[in-house]
Amino acid sequence: MATWEELSRDSLLAAQELFRRLRCRSSVSRAYYAAYSAVTAALTKRGIPQRYDRENPPHEAVPRMIRKNLGDLDKERRRKLSQSISVLLKLRIDADYYPGHTIDESVARHGVRMAYSVLNILGVDR
Fold it and tell me: Where are the domains of the chain?
C-alpha cells in the first residue's frame, strides 16, 4: 500500500521524465498530482479529517485547507503553497481538458518547478 508521500515522489519523477520527453501536457498533470499528494500527506500527518468516502481532499478545497490547517508553517509558506497548488490545478485542468490551450515547454517547466517547491516546503524527500 502506497503512502501520499510515495505518490508525490512518484508523480514528480514522472513529471520530470515526461518533461524531458517534451510530453508537456502529461508533465503538467503529474506535476500537479505531485504537489496535491504532498499537501494531502501533510494534512493527513496533522490529523486533518478527509471526506468520509475518500482518503483525500476535494481538489478545489486544497488551497483553503492549506491556509486553515497548516498553521505550523509560517504565513508566507502557507501563502506560497496555496498559490502554487491553485496555479498547478489550473494548469492541469487546461492540460487535461482544454486542447486549445497552449501547454508548451515553458509551461511544463514552470509546473515542474512549482511542484518541486511544494515538496520542498513540506519536507517531502525526493
Answer: 4-122
Please state the pTM of the whole predicted model.
Answer: 0.94
Query: Could you say which architecture CATH assigns to the domain 4-122?
Result: Up-down Bundle (1.20)
Q: Which of 84, 115, 46, 78 is nearest to 124 (CA)?
A: 115
The grid cell for 8 is: 508525490
Q: Return the residue matching grid coordinates 483525500.
A: 56
126 residues of the chain, pLDDT tens digit each? 789 999 999 999 999 999 999 999 999 999 999 999 999 999 999 888 666 567 789 899 999 999 999 999 999 999 999 999 999 999 999 999 999 999 999 999 999 999 999 999 999 976
Q: Which residues lie closer than 8 Å to 91 by C-beta, 6 or more apart?
A: 28, 31, 32, 103, 107, 110, 111
Selection from 33, 28, 44 nearest residue 8 by Cα? 33
Cα separations (Å) of 90 from 28, 49, 74, 85?
A: 10, 25, 25, 9
